[in-house]
Automatic annotation (TrEMBL):
<dbReference type="InterPro" id="IPR015943">
    <property type="entry name" value="WD40/YVTN_repeat-like_dom_sf"/>
</dbReference>
<keyword id="KW-0732">Signal</keyword>
<dbReference type="InterPro" id="IPR054817">
    <property type="entry name" value="Glycosyl_F510_1955-like"/>
</dbReference>
<feature type="signal peptide">
    <location>
        <begin position="1"/>
        <end position="20"/>
    </location>
</feature>
<protein>
    <submittedName>
        <fullName>Uncharacterized protein</fullName>
    </submittedName>
</protein>
Amino acid sequence: MYIKKLYLLLLLPVFLVGCASNNSSNKGEYFSKIENPSIDHVHGIGFPGGQSDLFLATHDGLLKLKDGQWFETTINNHDYMGFSPFKDGFYASGHPEEGTNFKNPFGIIKSLDEGKTIEKMKYYGAIDFHYVASSYETGAIYAVQPHENLSIEPGIYYNDGKTNDWSSSSSNGIPLDSITGIATHPADSNKVALLTTNGLFISGDNGKQFNQFASKSPITSIYFAKDKLYFSSYLGNTSTLSTYNLEAKETIEIGRVELKEDAIQYMAMNPTNSDEIWFYTFKNSLYVSEDAGESWSIKVEQGKVL
């Protein structure tokens, strides 16, 4: 339970009913440029479709940061929970925008065109998955269901990205309601990591068996790269970014950033430039590093674009 108090302190309320409005004057465009957006209720960040533009999944649709300019969607302004990009698009769960014909909740959905069109996959109209992870190269996907539901039993559900057949893992006795994050390897989807209130656990067999990763400080965010697992640790007013080498089993701290009573919630790496790493905090700040995590610059501070 060593990071439970941290999450209670930092995590902003999550609203479960999708509600969005469209104030764009460019009705014919899917993405419309916006000036000085107020950014909050972000449920994931990343680079869907293998592109270099950063996407933020919010309570009111998708935001895109392209060449220093912000854009918002003019349709499909859904509450995207569990947003997880992969090389062809993104997976998500959550709740539909009011006034649409989608059932609530989404179950698992997929888009291959930045959210213009949405494919209904599994558990549509039955489950809102808060924790979803996809393998960037393979398209395989994991989803955590912590509680009993009329549709499925509690478990960690896995899909290979090629069919709509799903299987569940035993999770090796890890309490499902303790999970606060999940990540999977971009090329080897057998490897999956769980962030829990009791620490970080890593599996190499689709979640059948997990080994606990030892850390002296609370871990708040995880991200898989090809040869290592990135993780952030909370040190009061400072957060560290470290890597854990999956083969050598070696941990290296690569950078620190001062965050006053805040911590890293989501991380993402630009698929076209591995030195470019982004993170989003619990209190709605967005940072970028262009030197693989050694130094950071802030782009959004507590919801305000700088």
